[in-house]
Each structure stands twice: as C-alpha cells, then as structure tokens.
C-alpha cells in the first residue's frame, strides 16, 4: 500500500492529503478493536483470533481492488494536435486547438471522451472502496502483534525472549521487502495491462501521469493473507514454558498407567470480570512513569516513520528524478534488508551480552542520537527545481518570472489551454507545459518517438530555426541523478543504526511493566502509536506537501486532480524538516527515559533489590504452582501414589 500511494493518487486524481486519509484508515481500523483485542488477549485462544484477523485482512485487500473492475480505462492528459492533410506532420500551436476537447488517451476517441468523460462522475468517489478495504485490513491486523508477541514472551525464557521477539520482528520485515519489490514491478506495468496497446501510450514510468497496476499487488496479497491464516487454526491455546519439558518428562515417570492425566484446562473468559478489571489495569499502566514516557516516545517515532515511508517514493521521484518503480525497488532491495539486519542484530546483542534494562536503554538512546545527527545531513543533498517555462523559469526576453506568466509573445497566437499538462523538453533544457506553450508548429515521428519542430519559444532563447525542437517528457536533471547515490547511502546508514536500537527500545516496555499486563501494554503502545502517529502523520504530511505544488492536473469534468510539478526545494524543506523536528523530540524523550530507568532500576538501589527479591519469590511460587496446580502430571511420586489409591 505504501509503494502504491503515488499510483492511487494519480489513478483517482486525488491530492496527497486524501491519500493520507486512505493510508490513515488502516490506523482507524486498528483503533476500533486494538484495546479490546490486546486486553482480552490472555483470556482468549490467541492463535485462532490471529487466524480470523488474517481472513479479515484478505477480505479488505479484495475490497480495495474492486474500483479497477468498476472504472473504465485510465485516460491521461494529452493535448489535441492538428493533423496536416498533406503529410503526417502535426501542429500543437494552432488556433483550432482552443476549440477542441483534450485528447486524453491514444486508445480512446474524442467521441468516447465526450460520452464517458462526465457521465461517470461516480468514478471520483470509487477511492472510498480503497479506504474501506484499508479499514478492514487495519481491523484484521490488530491482533497479530499484541497477541503474537505476548504468546511468544509467555512461553519463552527471559534471556531468550528478546532474541525471539527481535527475530519475529526482523523476519516480519521480509513482508514489506517483498511488498516493495512487488510494488516496483506493478508500478512499471501499465494500469490497464492486457486491455490497451502499450506501444500507443506516449508516456513512460518517469512521467507524473503514469499509473502502474496498483491493483495487481493487492490482489496477490489478499490471496497470501488467506493462505497465511490456515496454520494458526492448528496452534494450541498455550505452549509449555521453555526449559520445562525435561522436568515434565521426569515428573511423569512415577505416575502409574492407570492414573489418567488430564490436559490443562482452558480458563473460562468471564466478560463482566474482564470489563470490571479494565480501568484499574489501565490506571496501573499509566501510573508507571517509564511506560508513560515510552508511549510518548512511540507516538513521535510513529509520526516520523509513517510520514517518512508514506511519501518517500514521491520524494525520491521529485527530488532526484528517478521513476517511482525504481525508487520502490531500491527501498525493497537495499533499505529494508538493512533494517532487518539491524533489528536482528539488536536482539542478538541483548541475548549475547545479557543486557540489563538500564544497558538496553543507554544502547537505544545512543544509537538514536547518532542516527539523528546523520539525519541532518539529508539537507545537504540538494537539487535544483525543474525549469518549467511560466512556472519556475521565464520565457525569452523576460529577466524575472512574474506570477502565472504562462503565456508569452512567442505562443500568444497558439490559443493554448492553461489547464493542460503534456510536457515537452526543449533543446534549451527548459520544460514546457505542452508543445503548444513551446510554440511548436510541426513534428516528426509518432507515439513516444514524436519530435516537435519549429518551436518559436525555443527559438527565441538563442537557438536557430533548424535547432528549435522539443521532445515528449520533462527535461532530465542530471545533477539530481548524480546526488541520488549519496542520499541512498546516507539513508541506508541511518536505517541500520535506527533498527539496531529498535529491539532494545521495544524490550524496555516488557521489562518495565508487570507480567500480567504485557499483552495489554503492547496493545496500548500499538494503539497510541498508530492512532496518534500512524493516523494523523500521512494527513498532515500530505497537506503540507500539497502546499508545495506548482501545477495541478485537471480532471475530465473540471476540478484539480493530482499534482504534476512540485517546488522541489520547498518539498525537501517540508518533508525533511518535519522528520527532523519529530526526531528531535524523540531524542529528548530518550534522555528522559534513560534517567527514569537508571533511577528506578539502579543496581545498588533499594528498589532494584526489592525487585530482584520479588522476582525470585515469584519464580519459586511459579515453580510450586506448576507442580501442584497447573499440570496434574507434574506431581511428586508420593502425591501420585496417594491419588491412585
């Protein structure tokens, strides 16, 4: 979904803020069930609840792709050209162009445009299917992490728990990796694959009007979600505590053959009791200052991470002149595997050196602060704004660009339409909104290979008549492309360092709350992060990015569509500035968290001694309970003989 956000924006002709609302609907779905699921987690059959969640995610994915089969073919903006009856030459600069309707797709006729263009106004709202599908996916995803992580932590040794959870979280990153790779492939394939002649399409994947097969990846993921639900139906309600298997085998030896050993009974869920204990449990969690600071830290981290990922492909496309498909591919091949490695290594270091909670906090704090200062170097990866005549660059003879100076003397007699966007690149390195604005009066070639000639606006900028040509597409910014590898290397380094401290940070929550509240704490952490971070971040990031747009597309029936050209400098300052500001707050909270934990869990302190004594007592009580209550087969030989008699 993250990799397809640009494709969805262009297909439905919506703004970045609307895309942010669609993206945030996933978090709304989480909000609806997350607290209930995480609180009731220890009282229900967790694997089966996860299985139901997978089925709901599958249904949501299938619902999201429905608009593709309800809408007609995608029609991209394209200007009308006048065909010379004597030759195959066409003219973009013609008074007749103002009277004609835009010819939007090589696969459709103007008559079809008139018939389909404004009658199917309901197509403008079909993005609601995507929103509702994403909402269902959020509902289905809610039980996976809170119940899955607590399921693992309950039945693993304390020294192995961090390693297992780090392993699960890092292996879970293979999903996004495959998702980004699949998204890269889908973004490079035309949206109406199999229905149109690809050779007749005059734009390429680098064009801001290009729409890839956004629906194909969701269709595949829906099927995979369904298959993923199947194994969970066969997992048991609970697992034996790690390391107790040998004790259980020994304790079973004295039991006579005629003694029937019953399996552990599943506790009955009393809903009234669960509800009655809800608010005291909530009060206990938020009365813990370490957990409270951790929640605020999580919220800020979610804001920066979700905003970063949601618009990263758009940023790469606009800033460094790379196609969306290539940007998605690089994220999937380079950034995510490095993140996986960092998360796995972080969990491994905790297990290897048996880090205490104070040491984990220091490690997480140092790695985040180092990554933050490296993050500030992003601002050095600058790139010039795309030179578009009338938008960011003046026409010939004008020293300064005046606002909305789309027309000039060189194209005044061409009757160009101001709401069209079919860019051409002149020999002078300047992009024109259409060949009409370049004043082109003839052309050679067809389709993607069409070259416009005799362009009066290009001639006026120091080019002779024989050299005044323009080709389809925006002009390439070579300096931006050269700066991209440095940006990618810097981002890879930051991602690895952040991921390295990710697992230690996550384990702080488990070590700072009581064992009976672990599942509830994970749910509150996920809920707070997603509702106050994942939900608003795409919306306000998108709204601020929209403010940097210089040229909006136009829908068939009027009204603005998706953005065609951004002010890349303003885009960079908004995007990177928001991320840097949010992470500055994270640095401050990491320091506060470190101070609180060092005071509470100081090795020489009284509280730490009390905690260790309590922990030892709890372990002894748990061992006794395991022998006398939980497993009937784990009794002493004397008790077994008495029972049999």
UniProtKB/TrEMBL annotation:
It is found in: Cell membrane. GO terms for biological process: monoatomic ion transport; sodium-independent organic anion transport. Gene3D superfamilies: 3.30.60.30, MFS general substrate transporter like domains. Keywords: Cell membrane, Disulfide bond, Ion transport, Membrane, Transmembrane, Transmembrane helix, Transport. GO terms for cellular component: basolateral plasma membrane. Its main location: membrane. The chain crosses the membrane at residues 12-37, 49-70, 173-193, 213-235, 291-311, 323-350, 362-379, 574-598. It is a multi-pass membrane protein. GO terms for molecular function: bile acid transmembrane transporter activity; sodium-independent organic anion transmembrane transporter activity. Residues 404-459 form the Kazal-like domain. Residues 1-602 form the Major facilitator superfamily (MFS) profile domain. Belongs to the organo anion transporter (TC 2.A.60) family. This is Solute carrier organic anion transporter family member. The gene is LOC113489605.
């Amino acid at each position: 979904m993250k990799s397809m956000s640009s494709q969805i924006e262009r297909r439905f002709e919506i703004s970045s803020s609307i895309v942010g609302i669609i993206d945030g609907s996933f978090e709304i779905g989480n909000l609806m069930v997350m607290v209930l699921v995480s609180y009731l987690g220890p009282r229900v059959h967790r694997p089966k609840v996860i299985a139901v969640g997978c089925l709901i995610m599958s249904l949501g994915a299938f619902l999201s792709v429905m608009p593709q089969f309800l809408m007609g073919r995608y029609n991209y903006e394209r200007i009308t050209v006048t065909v010379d009856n004597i030759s195959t030459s066409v003219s973009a600069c013609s008074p007749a162009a103002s009277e004609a309707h835009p010819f939007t797709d090589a696969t459709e006729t103007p008559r079809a445009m008139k018939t389909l263009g404004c009658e199917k106004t309901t197509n403008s709202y079909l993005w609601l299917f995507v929103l509702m599908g994403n909402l269902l996916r959020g509902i289905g995803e809610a039980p996976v992490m809170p119940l899955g992580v607590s399921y693992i932590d309950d039945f693993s040794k304390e020294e192995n728990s961090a390693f297992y959870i780090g392993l699960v979280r890092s292996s879970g990153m293979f999903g996004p990796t495959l998702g980004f790779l699949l998204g890269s492939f889908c973004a490079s394939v035309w949206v109406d694959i199999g229905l149109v002649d690809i050779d007749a399409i005059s734009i390429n994947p680098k064009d801001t009007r290009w729409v890839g097969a956004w629906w194909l990846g969701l269709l595949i993921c829906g099927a995979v979600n369904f298959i993923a639900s199947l194994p969970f139906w066969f997992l048991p309600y609970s697992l034996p505590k790690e390391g107790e298997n040998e004790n259980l085998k020994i304790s079973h030896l004295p039991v006579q053959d005629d003694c029937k050993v019953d399996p552990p009974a599943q506790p009955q869920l009393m809903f009234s009791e669960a509800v009655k204990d809800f608010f005291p449990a909530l009060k206990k969690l938020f009365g813990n200052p370490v957990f409270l600071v951790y929640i605020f830290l999580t919220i800020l981290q979610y804001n920066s991470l979700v905003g970063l990922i949601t618009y990263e492909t758009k940023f790469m496309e606009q800033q460094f002149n790379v196609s969306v498909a290539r940007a998605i591919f690089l994220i999937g091949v380079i950034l995510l595997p490095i993140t996986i490695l960092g998360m796995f290594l972080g969990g491994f270091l905790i297990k290897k050196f048996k880090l205490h909670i104070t040491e984990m906090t220091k490690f997480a704090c140092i790695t985040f602060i180092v990554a933050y200062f490296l993050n500030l170097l992003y601002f050095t990866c600058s790139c010039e704004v795309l030179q578009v005549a009338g938008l960011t660059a003046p026409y010939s003879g004008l020293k300064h660009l005046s606002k909305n100076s789309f027309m000039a003397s060189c194209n005044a007699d061409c009757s160009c339409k101001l709401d069209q966007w079919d860019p051409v690149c002149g020999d002078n390195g300047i992009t024109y909104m259409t060949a009409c604005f370049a004043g082109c009066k003839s052309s050679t070639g067809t389709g993607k290979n069409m070259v416009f000639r005799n362009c009066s606006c290009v001639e006026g900028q120091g080019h002779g008549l024989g050299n005044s040509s323009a080709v389809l597409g925006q002009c390439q910014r070579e300096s931006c492309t050269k700066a991209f590898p440095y940006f990618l290397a810097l981002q890879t380094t930051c991602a690895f360092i952040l991921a390295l401290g990710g697992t230690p940070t996550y384990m702080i929550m488990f070590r700072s709350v009581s064992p009976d509240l672990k599942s509830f704490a994970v749910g509150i952490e996920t809920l707070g992060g997603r509702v106050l971070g994942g939900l608003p971040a795409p919306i306000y990031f998108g709204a601020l990015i929209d403010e940097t747009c210089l040229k909006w597309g136009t829908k068939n029936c009027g009204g603005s569509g998706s953005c065609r050209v951004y002010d890349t400098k303003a885009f960079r300052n908004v995007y990177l500035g928001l991320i840097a500001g949010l992470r500055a707050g994270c640095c401050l909270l990491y320091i506060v968290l470190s101070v609180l934990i060092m005071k509470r869990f100081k090795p020489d302190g009284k509280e730490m001694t009390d905690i260790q004594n309590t922990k030892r007592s709890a372990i002894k009580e748990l061992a006794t309970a395991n022998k006398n209550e939980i497993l009937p087969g784990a009794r002493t030989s004397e008790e077994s003989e008495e029972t049999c008699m």
